[in-house]
Structure formats: C-alpha cells, structure tokens
Automatic annotation (TrEMBL):
Entry function: Stores iron in a soluble, non-toxic, readily available form. Important for iron homeostasis. Has ferroxidase activity. Iron is taken up in the ferrous form and deposited as ferric hydroxides after oxidation.
Chief location category: plastid
Family: Belongs to the ferritin family.
Positions that bind Fe cation: E117, E152, H155, E201, Q235
Keywords recorded for this protein, A-Z: Chloroplast, Iron, Iron storage, Metal-binding, Oxidoreductase, Plastid, Transit peptide
Self-association state and partner proteins as the record states: Oligomer of 24 subunits. There are two types of subunits: L (light) chain and H (heavy) chain. The major chain can be light or heavy, depending on the species and tissue type. The functional molecule forms a roughly spherical shell with a diameter of 12 nm and contains a central cavity into which the insoluble mineral iron core is deposited.
Organism the protein comes from: Daucus carota subsp. sativus (Carrot)
Protein name: Ferritin
Span of domain Ferritin-like diiron: 100-253
Record-linked InterPro entries: Ferritin (IPR001519), Ferritin-like (IPR012347), Ferritin-like_diiron (IPR009040), Ferritin-like_SF (IPR009078), Ferritin_CS (IPR014034), Ferritin_DPS_dom (IPR008331)
One Gene Ontology molecular-function label: ferroxidase activity
PANTHER family reported for this sequence: FERRITIN
GO biological process: intracellular iron ion homeostasis; iron ion transport; response to oxidative stress
Cellular localisation: Plastid, Chloroplast
C-alpha cells in the first residue's frame, strides 16, 4: 500500500527520467505533488512540440524556440467537434441512440447468421429426439446432439446481443422443419447423422466467412473482430472434432461397434460447438 508521498515519488521518477528535467523543476520536494506533475508535463510539451498547452486547452507559441507557426489543428477541441451532425443524439423513439458506423448490410447479414444458428439448433434437437428413442437408445449421441443444439442457440443469442449492442434490429426469419428419421440402409443412423452434422458445420463456416467478408466490405473492423474472436476458431475446431467422429464411425461399422462409440461419447461429453 502506498502513502500519498511514496506515490508522488514514483510518479515523479517515471515522468522525470526520460524528460531530463532541470534541477529547478526537480526541486519539488518543497512543492506539492500536483505542482511537480504540472511542471513535468509542461516541460515535456515544450521540449517535444515547442507548444505550451494550458489547463484550459488554449495553445501558445514557445517564444524561446523562435517558432511562430500557426497552431490551428494541434489541439483537440471536443466542444467544437462534437457539434458535427454525426454526433447529434437522435430523439425519435424508434431510433437507436448507440448506432454508429453500422451499415444496413451488416445488420441484415447478422440476422441471416442468427437464422443459420437457429436452423442448426433445430436440426440437432431433432437428432437428439431420434437417438433418445427407446428403440434406438444411443444415449451418448442423444446427449451430444442435445448439447450441440443448446450451443447453437447460444450462438444465436450472442449474435442477438451483438446486434442490439450496435443499435441494429433483431429480425428472426423462418426455420425449416428438420427430418425426424436418421436411419440409413448402408451407413446406419449414427454415421449418417454425424456426416450430416459435418456437412452442416462446414456450411456454417462458409456462412461465418461470408459474414466476415461483409464486415470487411463495410469497413466495420469491430464486427470483423467479433466474428473472429467468438466464432471462427470454434468453428474449425468443431469441423475437426466431427470429422474425427465420422472416421471412427466408418471404422466400427453399424452394429456392436456403434454401441462402444456411443459409450465413449457419453463419457467424453461436450458438444459439436
Ligand atoms: Fe454455431
Ligand atoms: Fe456449430
């Protein structure tokens, strides 16, 4: 824990060392800490720019350096610049106050991605219901697809939260009814469903990359960063994970091996992501 005196000493040391203050400005042991700070900053401004900026924000020429150039544009003028039309706060009740540099194309693309995530969630939920049947009874696959369904819904909610944060409007589109049967004469149900999941995750990756391209095209680095940080890495991890499962199911065939795969999945836990 620092006393105010020790904090002042540290602050003075950090600022004074690179600025090579003269002995007069360093003689602040008889002055207050804030006086020392002000002297240090003023010295810094003088040495770096030849301009002194007062506490009120006005600038003057440092006559010592003989520089008489005009100073306009050197000082941030917040109360002038904020009068720009771009910073006027909307008053219409149905208009977002927060929206800034957020284009309609980005807003639409986010709503489309929300729809993709809900469709994924719906299909995985249908798979959960199939594998949970008493005459199928593959509990590991049932749990895997239930967790995956919830994960996709979480993705939709993350995008909804982002849409609202940027001042966009969430619009939910229709979702298609998924199949209820997943059995396949040659592949069996487990492999067929897992291959379907792999195709779906690859398609989702394409959609995410399209969304990222829209963000780039609209010069919206914040949206691009959101997609990169929260979706892109997870998506390629999901594709690898499900690819592994497809390969394992191709090895084990349709019968007894599927039961062992299912038991291993039950122990492993986790979702497709
Ligand atoms: Fe997703
Ligand atoms: Fe996914």
């Amino acid at each position: 824990m620092f006393s105010s005196a020790s904090f002042c000493a540290i602050e003075g040391a950090n600022l004074a060392t690179p600025l090579a203050l003269n002995s007069k400005s360093l003689s602040s042991n008889s002055k207050s800490c804030s006086a020392h700070f002000t002297a240090t900053i003023n010295n810094f401004a003088r040495k770096r720019t030849g301009v002194l900026v007062s506490a009120s924000g006005s600038a003057s020429v440092d006559t010592d350096s003989g520089n008489n150039l005009p100073l306009s544009g050197l000082v941030f003028q917040p109360f002038e610049e904020v009068k720009n039309e771009a910073f006027v706060v909307p008053v219409a009740p149905h208009t977002s106050l927060a929206r800034q540099r957020f284009q309609d194309e980005c807003e639409s693309a986010i709503n489309e991605q929300i729809n993709v995530e809900y469709n994924n969630s719906y299909l995985y939920h249908a798979m959960f219901a199939y594998f949970d049947r008493d005459n199928v009874a593959l509990k590991g696959l049932a749990k895997f697809f239930k967790d995956s369904s919830e994960e996709e819904r979480t993705h939709a909610e993350m995008l909804m939260g982002y849409q609202n944060m940027r001042g966009g409007r969430v619009k939910l589109h229709s979702i298609l009814n998924p199949p209820s049967e997943f059995d396949h004469a040659e592949k069996g149900d487990a492999l067929y469903a897992m291959e379907l999941a792999l195709s779906l995750e690859k398609l989702t990756n394409e959609k995410l990359l399209n969304l990222h391209a829209v963000a780039d095209r609209c010069n919206d680095p914040q949206l691009a960063d959101f997609i990169e940080s929260n979706f892109l890495e997870e998506q390629v991890e999901a594709i690898k994970k499900i690819s592994d499962y497809v390969s394992q199911l191709r090895r084990v065939g349709k019968g007894h091996g599927v039961w062992h795969f299912d038991q291993a999945l039950l122990l492993e836990g986790g979702a497709a992501v």
